[in-house]
Amino acid sequence: MSGALALGAPMLGAAPVVGEGQVDRGVRPPARGAAGGVMPDTWQISQRVESLLEEITQRGCMFFWEQGDPNTGLVRDRAPMQGASQSRTASIAATGFGLSALCIAAHRKYLPQADVEKRVENCLNFMLDKARNVYGFYFHFLDMQTGDRLFNCELSSIDTVLLMCGVLLCRTYFNNPKIEALANRMYRRMDWNWMLNGGKTPSMGWFPSKGFIPSRWDTYAEMMNMYLIAIGSPSFPLPPASWDELKRPEVDFGGVDYISGAPPIFVHQYSHAWCDFRGLRDKHANYFVNSIAATRAHQLFCLTLGARFPWINQDLWGITASDSRTGYRVWGGPPESGRIDGTLVPCATAGSLVFLPAECSHVLMSMRDRFGDKVYGRYGFVDAFLPHVNWFSPDVIGIDQGISVLMAENLRTGFVWQEFMKNKEIRHAMDLCDFHPDPGARAPV
To answer: Is the pTM above the cut of 0.85?
Structure first.
């Protein structure tokens, strides 16, 4: 049926789905550069893991298609794991992940490309002409039908950037002059001079009633793409020197050294979903190898929690911002942050698939094998679960589905990296920030 995503993913253990025009690769794509640091060249995706990654990708793309408004393209912030939702709360970050997932859906022929391009055109037109913005930046949560601001939320610099990552991916992937023109207009009107608010680093956001948020994006976290998009801006660029204004605190956990400004593991994942940092470094770090180290440290941290929560072990680990039995929580580590209660979060390991592929895919397989349809439904993994009390989140969350889908695809083919890096502004910004090959890099053991 035109416009409907057919769910044909296999049961685990069956042969992987291979669509028209696809190749059953069996092995991961080669790392870029000698230092790539993605996964060892000898590591191969087993047939069973390939089947799971195909399911994660296909079911995640279904979420973004079904939970996106056909007229506005805005994507619900969350939805029940089995589908139907009446919520009109959209997230601009989920919409950015959703635009990216639609590129994957078209590429893999899950959906007719003409239908996908129409949805993307509708979204970009709506964001330009209907959704409220200030100097090209958008409010965190919008009514998915009207584009009105919800919950008196902030105008968010980071969430606008996640939206733009999806927009720029669509610009390069689709050979569509309308999409290219709309994406250019959205990019050009982002006024980074305004978002600086007189400082050297961007503000985290702005409220109509209170003005700019005092906190700034001045410490290493998930905002690397923000700086690259801003420095590469064709209209209101940040000075390249702003890249060096970022603080890069060093952490040592269990003998693993890495840069980290906040405990949740997602801060080491989001930028890497789009930008290909493999085999490159600036004068400060190799950020891909840094995220490998951060994931290794997070694994070790989770294993130390096993004394308090015996179900956490080599087969089951991973904690990041997620649902809990008592609401949404920003938790993680190291160091331990939030009131951790043993809740496991599938996207914590799914989002690090490209960093520790064997370990992370093993955890996802274990979750699926052990808990079956309690943890896995129409859109893939539930957002979080606490096994010893038999609690499984009834929902999936857009940004968590998004990082899972993009990283699964990058592990298998590198598709998102390849397309996003065609954006000349991103490449130019990396040049201005003195990124260069790093052939001697070694990932932590």
So the answer is: yes
